[in-house]
Backbone:
């Protein structure tokens, strides 16, 4: 699993509950090396950052092992738990060490393959690092979700407060991009183990469906389910009428606009008249503007809807009924339909190729790293503080902040954590 996915997975109620209670314990400034891996020094800051990943892994595995465990209970302490048959703290230490060995393996493989960043990638790495380090978090400091920031003005200031230096954060950022470059060296187009395009297309086709849909409500104006059989039959006929128009090649935008006009008429609004906003909706939007890409794992608008959509034949229109709605669903071909902003034949394939590659080859890539570091020697600096216990949760807080900022549309292009 990629670093990005590991940290994204940590943005849960469990993680947020943990970070909101975090306290910033001081870090010994006299100790700069946490350990040595295969002759390469691992700075304290690098170790602390990876302890955040390990902490996220531990909490996730704990929830899998004990799904009924109430981690929000007053006084709950993760470090009193057992994970994978060992104490929580030992699990975090073990996995932090593995992350540090992986860090060294990435550097070693990057050098052995003779890979170098091109000028564009070099600039991107520097921009990402600097943008994240300098990111102004002062506006977040008063939010309950970011209470652990403790008044820090920048994200870099927060990391420094838990013992992560600027140079360590930069090395960490560089390493994640090196991991990405190695992944591409093996599996991307032109790579030594290039994944066939048909395998990529097949994965996308099996895991994403493309549809246009809208609902015909079976509720009255007060939100109660309609019970009158005649009214229900009228709504069923209306949904099927929309279906027939789309099946006959009608414009989705026009059919949807017709339904909006119908709703306006039912509510007695003035815009039901000719020339209304509803009538002009089809002129303002194209059919492809209504495209919805839906993952097989999605639960929106419902699990039943998604399951039905993936069973539906491509390039067909159907009416899917639930207790509260008729859904008029036009399923498209995700492999051949261009996106709302796309040009050319397979915009969705282009946009999701990297996702497919990661899912298809992410585990293989991790095995390459594991094989590389399997024989690495490790020398722990016994004089260093217990970072895995003292700072792991704080490190996760900072890394989670990056992900939350990403979700709020800041620097969305900058958060690629590699394979």
Residues:
């Amino acid at each position: 699993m990629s670093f990005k996915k590991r940290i994204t997975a940590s943005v849960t109620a469990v993680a947020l509950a943990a970070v909101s209670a975090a306290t910033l314990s001081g870090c010994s400034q006299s100790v700069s090396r946490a350990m040595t891996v295969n002759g390469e020094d691992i700075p304290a800051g690098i170790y602390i950052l990876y302890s955040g990943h390990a902490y996220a892994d531990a909490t996730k595995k704990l929830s899998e092992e004990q799904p009924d465990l109430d981690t929000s209970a007053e006084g709950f302490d993760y470090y009193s738990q057992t994970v994978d048959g060992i104490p929580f703290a030992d699990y975090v230490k073990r996995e932090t060490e593995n992350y540090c060995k992986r860090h060294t393996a990435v550097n070693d493989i990057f050098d052995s393959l003779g890979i170098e960043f091109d000028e564009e990638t070099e600039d991107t790495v520097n921009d990402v690092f600097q943008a994240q380090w300098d990111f102004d978090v002062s506006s977040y400091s008063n939010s309950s979700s970011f209470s652990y920031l403790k008044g820090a003005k920048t994200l870099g200031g927060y990391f420094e407060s838990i013992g992560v230096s600027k140079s360590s954060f930069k090395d960490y950022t560089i390493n994640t991009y090196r991991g990405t470059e190695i992944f591409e060296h093996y599996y991307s187009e032109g790579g030594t183990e290039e994944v066939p395009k048909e395998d990529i297309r097949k994965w996308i086709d099996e895991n994403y469906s493309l549809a246009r849909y809208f609902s015909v409500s079976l509720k009255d104006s007060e939100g109660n389910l309609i019970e009158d059989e005649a009214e229900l039959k009228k709504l069923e006929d209306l949904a099927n009428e929309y279906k027939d128009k789309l099946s006959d090649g009608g414009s989705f935008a026009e059919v949807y606009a017709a339904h909006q006009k119908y709703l306006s008429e039912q509510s007695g609004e003035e815009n039901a008249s000719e020339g209304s906003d509803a009538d002009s909706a089809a002129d303002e939007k194209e059919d492809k503007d209504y495209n919805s890409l839906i993952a097989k794992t999605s639960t929106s608008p419902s699990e039943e809807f998604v399951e039905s959509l993936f069973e539906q034949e491509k390039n067909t229109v159907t009416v899917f009924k639930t207790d509260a709605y008729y859904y008029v669903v036009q399923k498209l071909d995700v492999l051949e339909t261009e996106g709302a902003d796309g040009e050319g034949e397979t915009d969705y394939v282009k946009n999701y190729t990297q996702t497919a590659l990661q899912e298809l080859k992410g585990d293989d890539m991790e095995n390459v790293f594991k094989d590389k570091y399997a024989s690495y020697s490790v020398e722990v600096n016994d004089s260093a503080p217990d970072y895995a216990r003292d700072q792991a949760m704080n490190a996760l807080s900072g890394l989670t902040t990056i992900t939350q900022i990403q979700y709020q549309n800041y620097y969305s292009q900058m958060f690629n954590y590699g394979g």
About this structure: Confidence is low (pLDDT under 50) at residues 6-30, 270-275, 409-419. The chain is about 50% helix and 10% strand.
